[in-house]
């Protein structure tokens, strides 16, 4: 029988809780044996909810005192490099949430640190494990819609992200926090790297939400030219108010493929004629991508048990960060930005 993979959850916030739910509820090959968060109230609440006894305020303490094979890092972006390197140096496999890091130097350090330590590195791109995204990617690669010509990928979220996540200095802002998945998916589904991007941003709700971080935006639209000659857009809105909306459309030379829908449940309700028909919408990312979160941890655990390389790792994380940096430079400098400016450090 395969060994049970023992996991230390690093970060007990929104995603730490979401991933604890996926692992403890649906991944029999894994067990969370320790949890880390410097915010004690958050740590106690999440650890209580999932019955995790070994609780620490730093990864260092957990490495000293607890028994585990891997870490799942669900902390703010600016902490990713240090935590991933610390875990790798101690011989722990690393599952790292997106965005991989703040810049390409940090991504390279994580790739090199995990490689040197001989541990696996998987990035938290759960859409790759969400059944309809995975099926679409396979069918596009098999040529079902011909050569991909155009992609439209949107992620619109209902609420304002935490303060660190909307600040360019600690997260690279919404293009990173909300649209990391789009940067990864458009490359994956189009089967091509990006060549050039041009970004427009807008701020409609910052004032009413008392946001005073420089360059804050709550709407973003990126135009993309791919190396293949294809074109595309990424759109982000947060907070959009109406629910959680992640939909992608790819048009090929022979046909079209649409992934996802606004509708959240297969139910229509009508209780009075003034209200009309009510169709429930997707409300939260935790529900929208539940299968993807479970799938990504099944994969991570299997890769550790069978000593196989995860199918989404540092290279993909690094390219998504490069997209974020190009997209951000584009709106700051009000011009199209070539990916090679970022990738070649110009
Ligand atoms: N895959 C997804 O769908 C998805 C969704 C939302 C967020 N994220 C990503 O997950 C990560 C966390 O986001 P979140 O929304 O949970 O943030 P959050 O602010 O809700 O939680 C982060 C937690 O990390 C803790 N923390 C900070 N420094 C730490 C350290 N050194 N060691 C241990 N814990 C530390 C904080 O105290 C906090 O409780 C980010 O990288 C974010 O971009 C991914």
UniProtKB/TrEMBL annotation:
Gene3D superfamilies given in the database record: Dihydrodipicolinate Reductase, domain 2, NAD(P)-binding Rossmann-like Domain
Name under which the protein is recorded: Predicted dehydrogenase
Pfam families, per database record: GFO_IDH_MocA, GFO_IDH_MocA_C
PANTHER family: BILIVERDIN REDUCTASE A (PTHR43377)
InterPro entries according to UniProt: Gfo/Idh/MocA-like_OxRdtase_C (IPR004104), Gfo/Idh/MocA-like_OxRdtase_N (IPR000683), Gfo/Idh/MocA_Oxidoreductases (IPR051450), NAD(P)-bd_dom_sf (IPR036291)
Organism: Longilinea arvoryzae
Domain Gfo/Idh/MocA-like oxidoreductase N-terminal: 6-125
SUPFAM superfamilies, A to Z: Glyceraldehyde-3-phosphate dehydrogenase-like, C-terminal domain, NAD(P)-binding Rossmann-fold domains
